[in-house]
Amino acid sequence: MNAAWPIVALGGLAFAFAAFSVVIAAFTGPKRFNRAKVAAYECGIEPTPQPIGGGRFPVKYYLVAMMFIIFDIELVFLYPWAVAFDQLGLFGFIAMMLFLINLIVPYLYEWRRGGLEWD
Amino acid sequence: MTDSFAPFGVDPWWIVAIKVLFVFVLLVVLTLLAIWGERRIVARMQQRIGPNRVGPFGLLQGLVDGVKLALKEEIVPAIADRTVYWLAPVIAATAAFMAFAVIPFGPTVSMFGYQTPLQLTDFPVSVLYILAIASVGIYGIVLAGWSSGSTYALLGGLRSTAQMISYEIAMGLSFVAVFLYAGSMSTSEIVTAQERVWYAVLLLPSFLIYVTSMVGETNRAPFDLPEAEGELVGGFHTEYSSLKFALFFLAEYINMVTVSALATTLFLGGWRAPWPLSLWEGANEGYLPILWFLIKVAGFMFLFIWLRGTLPRLRYDQFMNFGWKVLIPVALLWIIIVSLARVLRTDVALSVTTSILVLGIPVALLILLALFWDALRARIRPGGPSAATGRDDVEGGSAHHAAAEFDPFAGGHPVPPLPGQVMPGATSPPPVLVATTTQERDA
Questions:
Q1: Residue B124: what pLDDT?
Q2: Cβ separation B346–A86 shorter than 8 A
Q3: In what helix (H) or strand (E) does residue B106 lie, and over which residues does it extend?
Q4: Beta-carbon separation of B390 and A19 below 8 A
Q5: How does pLDDT run across B26-44, given as a tens digit for each residue?
Q6: Cβ contacts (< 8 Å) between B243 and chain A: which residues?
Q7: Domain A5-112 maps to which CATH number in 1.20.58.1610, 3.20.20.140, 1.25.10.10, 2.40.50.140?
Q8: Predicted local confidence at residue B3, as pLDDT
Q9: Residue B309 CB: number of other CB atoms within 10 A?
């Protein structure tokens, strides 16, 4: 048996539990329809009409997501390097430091240009 | 696979079933206990008593709350994207449960005559698996916020996502030093590697970065900005009710347990008995280590509750600044220091004293630089720290000519002057001050 099967079993059990909960709630609770109740909650006033296609949101979130991808890829490089550190020795250390410098310089540049400011 | 993974993936199906059930039940029970514990402890911190009616000491409160939620009406907003709206809580809860699969509870024990480790499964890349599943959990949140068709929910979901991905970087960077010392990404091997000394002692900065980022990662106070009631009502689950809301609640608490268990495994020696107890040989055998493991996890859970009872919520820009400008650079610097120390010890083969000396000089220089940073910057760029942010043109001219003066909009948010500070151009009493400032900004 593969070592991944227990994860599949746990995931299956959790999924079954969650799906069961979501479905059963439709039967256990009362149903009293009310037009105001199914409107989006905005503290009691008429909800703002939602733009078609999701609308727009602040560009800052895109920037954070892009920074996340850059650093996440960095992590993907750092992990195997850390695990194999003792075998790689001095050469591996210097190589990774060069990589980190390549990453830190644009990071500092972005910091300096105000890309990390949130306002 | 190497030999240390031999015990995994060879269990008969019924042992796997027992372990799966154990993990599932443990997580649900820990969630119920955590909800009860949180309410009781926070109540004590606020001079209240807390829930004490249902069951002994109110222990069944969480369970009864769940039943109550099941009996509540399920309100689906008319504008919601139905499929995604139903799927989001299922994704969040499933991912939360699955992340726990690779956490070790104890050593190899005899279970009905079978020798099997007290751990559901393990890979050479277990920690990477946990990070991956945690990222899947973010989908549950962002999809919930998006599909609700409500402004509050959308903003809460976005905030939550931005926060979790930002702090996931710091979290991921704090693991690097652990992998470096353990030489492995498997949870069971990391626990074995901590037989002599815990990584929380050896790699204290990593541990501190992890503990900080795990609070941000689980959206808990003081980093619970996605649920800032004054700004966003309930955040991404504003439009969720009944058991779908309960699933998000469950997922949040399971995530707390999981990050605590991960902290225990990676930094506090996992299921191994703490120091004075570890002198007794029987402490690390049989089913007893589950107890040590649970005690350590409970300690972290208490830390979560303590933080909630003590600290006020951060502002969002402060929070993001802390993540990107403090945690990440410190984590990167720490990785460089640790790897340098390691390579000096193993490859260059310097003695301990020489390594400390070689490392101490740059560290001392860095500390000195940090101490005199503000003074140096003021000398290089006259105009004060605010001039260096590169936003002078946006902020208006006030920062240029009034470096010594108090700038009410320095951080982008208006703040009143503290005693001893003077508003720019202030010559008369407060009512006039406001007008002066407004004119200045308009000009």
A1: 85
A2: yes
A3: strand B106-111
A4: no
A5: 999 999 999 999 999 999 9
A6: 21-22, 24-25, 28
A7: 1.20.58.1610
A8: 57
A9: 15
